[in-house]
Amino acid sequence: MLEVKGITRSFGDLQVLSDVGFDVPAGTLTGIVGGRDAGKTTLLRILAGLLDADDGSVLLDGEALDGVDLQRVGYLPQQRGLYPSMRVAQQLVYIGRLHGFSLGAAERNTHTLLEKLGIADFADLRLDSLGLGDRQRVQIAATLVHDPDVIMLDAPFEGLDTGAVDDIIEVLGGHAESGVPIVLTTTELGVVEGVTDNLVILQDGEVQAEAATNELLVPTGRFEIEASAGLDWLGNVSGVTVDELDGNYARFSVADEADRADVSQRVLQKALGLGTVTHFSAEAPTIDELARTTAV
């Protein structure tokens, strides 16, 4: 288990983190969600042992992190740090060796990760020859190649397509199943729904909410729909308020909580009767909404 207790950090007169605390149980994935200036990167650097806190402590399996071998930590920084001119597999093996692995073990871990992340064909290519999504997969492999006991990822899904996100989530899920606590940061609540076990909402350096993901991401009554036929009829559906309408795309709300399931299904069925529905989803609450309505 990773335990974060009362972390406070300032830079000069600017307080970036104030009494931040939460737990990440073994085998679970916790998402730290907040805006651009919430303090997420500073917090993750402290958790990874790369930056000292002014106050507070971080424990891994009951041991203070400053007494833990940092080789046990897998950390993906927001500013990626691999060598662009090195070949992919060569770089991963090198990182494994730096963490004390034998050549054979580093090569085996490298091969396994490249296969799982769908980039085995790029093993002999230079990193700077790959696209953004594939470079990010290599970065994830570099974070995991030494089999860390705790994993910390700063904005791992930023700028990635769905395929890359799915591959990374699958690999992280395997590590969680083996008992590793995992922490990741993001600015988007939609990214963590269905991926994380728990959420920490960080705003202005303070924890505004902490709970299981399914407890925090309660339905908002807002929906998105995209269909092949026009959606001009949407405003005529009883119980629906159209928030945005642009040709084949619309956002709408159902204010009455008791009617949301029935009304949204009527909208979906009518759209299907008129043509193909390419997207239909319920919107998650925003970070600001969670901060206003939920307390630690």
UniProtKB/TrEMBL annotation:
Under InterPro entries, the record lists: AAA+_ATPase, ABC_transporter-like_ATP-bd, ABC_transporter_ATP-binding, P-loop_NTPase
- What GO molecular function terms would the record report? ATP binding; ATP hydrolysis activity
> Which Pfam families does its entry note?
ABC_tran
User: What is this entry's stated membrane topology?
Assistant: Peripheral membrane protein
State the protein's name.
ABC-2 type transport system ATP-binding protein
What PROSITE patterns does the database record attribute to this sequence?
ABC_TRANSPORTER_2 (PS50893)
Q: Which residues form the ABC transporter domain?
A: 2-229
Keyword Calcium attributed: no
